[in-house]
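If your schedule permits, I should be very grateful for your opinion on a structural question. I have a record of one protein: its chain in single-letter code and its fold written as discrete structure tokens. Would you kindly read the sequence against the tokens and tell me how you understand this chain to fold? Thank you for your consideration; the sequence and its tokens are set out here.


***
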Amino acid sequence: LHFGAFLDGVLHGVMSFGSSLDKRKMIGLVKGTKWNEFIELNRMAFDEVLPKYSESRCISIAMRLLKKQAPQIKWVLSFADGTQCGDGTIYRASGFMLTNVKKNTTIGYSEKLKRVVAKHGKEAKKQGRVKPLKGYQLRYVYFLHLEERKNLTVPEIPFSKIKEMGASMYLGKNNCLSGVTGNTSRIHREDRGSKPTERLYNYG
């Protein structure tokens, strides 16, 4: 499902919802969830033309549309990249629950390719071809059906835990690419609009 945010007839923001990249693992987050009863916000990108709080407003509208047009979907999953972008300010402002904060092990920087890569293998890491980015990955859940909240199989984490763990990131600050030449980081604007993160490549 793809939603666009328009201002004066011009597209300035997009949100893309679809299957989770690791659906078999994620489906167990909420007990009793069927295969077609959850969806992931896979991608969101807004430019700086839209007014303040446009992301939160658009998420709210998208959630209402999902609940009305796809009533079988009970909850929405999304992730925040605390290695390059932000720790999920928009999600917290939009009513998402924080369910996991963990050190990044899946996104790295390849000196050979001079770009950010994902799903890098153990062999690549051993040879030094890919170095994991310093930072954290944060997982959020939004319940379209509030009664499903009781079926959450993992603890709800207080937002204060983000700062306690040193996982805070805002506007792409304090990311581990500070010593890397080239514009490999794309700042996720959480106060106004947003710029997409660098496309992630599978290291082959």
Observations:
- Helices lie at 23-26, 54-69, 89-93, 122-126, 160-164.
- The CA atoms of residues 3 and 62 lie 7 Å apart.
- The beta strands are 2-7, 10-18, 38-46, 75-82, 97-103, 107-110, 115-118, 130-132, 136-143, 201-202.
- The radius of gyration is 17 Å.
